[in-house]
């Protein structure tokens, strides 16, 4: 790998990837963002973002640190509500309903739109209780044993833990913990899974397992992933949005969307000079 | 120092690698620090010896069985009896009342401060709560006697004794709330915010997150806070001496006056007992029993804390 240029690595990642045959048109829309702006107090972290997210696709948000991609992701399931002073303006519609509408319950939003975080945040409970946590707090009826097995199987973890379900989740490796978090997430039967740099704290082998898992999950779920790793975006995503951080007239830093399209197009024929500079490693 | 110089410097010009300065300051600091640590260790030993010796002498005159299981405590009578059970029940009844008050309120205050309060209110409320811990216990004692008993409890329970276990226990409970709340809050604040995010992201409410994720994750710290609070309650002297009366009373009725182990020690110790008398030695026997009880409780709690740690990490 170190012998190859960044361009070669990316093009081989694209060949392995799944973005062939993805068209510009999005027919089955899950999210519509129109001039979405996120503020922390008076500070505007993200300038107006407009894009649509397609059902059962993997959409990657890439860009340098501080470009607001994680902040944007956390506004999809209203996790930013938990940060004092955070505020969203503009439209973020989920199947046509404004997620920030007056009658919308953020708890219901988070049940439909799950999230996996950068650090595997398993609870200090058994493996079983980690998976069962979401269904229990949401009073989901049914056979819990079956549900736990189903979710751990889907997260490609069942075979490794089926004899240790009562063991503490802290006994698992980092990669296993992250797959447990994914199992925990899908146990509440969400439609969307948001992933905020899910492989940032994992080694390459654990990373490739998670990437393979993401491709399997995309059959059933819609996935939006934030990543620092361009090869990862090229390998796993159908569409890519490139963000960057720029100084405005007043010298204040803010994030903005530069370019959005099928992953193949973003990486092989970027329309914007800034995108091209970033993916060719000249910047960032 | 007196080793022969090897001829390195002559050959290579590296200079001697031997210590050239005596570093007196370093040794002096070390001695001062060792002395500082030794003072508290030696004091502990001194206390144990000064308690154990009269206790052994006491048990040469009173049998251990009569002491532990006797139901009458009249050490100052001519034909004194030394059954410690009335003092033990007095201590346990008052401590139990304090615990019933302080555990739910202390934990509730901690959950509010850690999970619900805004940064601004936490910055005001926590130091205010901790102020409560700085009030001298003698003030709490008079508060229990003058206000809690005579203004409140007599209206609810007309037959209540003026000196009673209930008021002492209630006020003692209020006294240990800050200890429990503040230490529990520290433990909950130390729970990584990623765990809360994980819980909220699964569609949990604030209450579910606090009860099912934050409290279990902070449990070892919360148990430690509880034990520290209970230890303070068992050892507390002033409130019970002032508000609970000085009458040994083998009863579980909190409306009656009771004497605790600590208030017996305080009252008898400040009286004019002659050194070496059996009454005088009984003070040490009671003190020794109190020491054994708190020691056992600390051991149990250390076990508990370890067990939870092992389960979660």
From TrEMBL, chain A:
Gene Ontology molecular function terms on file: ATP binding; ATP hydrolysis activity; phosphate transmembrane transporter activity
Annotated ABC transporter domain residues: 31-270
Keyword Transport among UniProt keywords: yes
Keyword Nucleotide-binding: yes
SMART domains: AAA
Keywords tagged on the record: ATP-binding, Nucleotide-binding, Transport
InterPro entries: AAA+_ATPase, ABC_transporter-like_ATP-bd, ABC_transporter-like_CS, P-loop_NTPase, PstB-like
Biological process according to GO: phosphate ion transmembrane transport
Gene Ontology cellular-component annotations: membrane
Protein name: Unannotated protein
Organism of derivation: freshwater metagenome
Automatic annotation (TrEMBL), chain B:
Keyword Transmembrane (UniProt): yes
GO cellular component: membrane
Ranges where the ABC transmembrane type-1 domain occurs: 88-301
UniProtKB keywords: Membrane, Transmembrane, Transmembrane helix
Any one GO BP annotation for this protein: phosphate ion transport
SUPFAM superfamilies: MetI-like
Membrane topology, from the record: Multi-pass membrane protein
Pfam families: BPD_transp_1
Listed GO MF terms: phosphate transmembrane transporter activity
Localization (cell): Membrane
Xref: InterPro entries: MetI-like, MetI-like_sf, Phosphate_PstC
Sequence intervals crossing the membrane: 28-53, 92-113, 133-156, 162-183, 213-234, 283-305
Alphabetized PANTHER family for the sequence: PHOSPHATE TRANSPORT SYSTEM PERMEASE, PHOSPHATE TRANSPORT SYSTEM PERMEASE PROTEIN
Species of provenance: freshwater metagenome
Name listed for the protein in its UniProt record: Unannotated protein
NCBIfam families referenced in this protein's UniProt entry, alphabetically: phosphate_pstC
CDD domains for the chain: TM_PBP2
Main location class: membrane
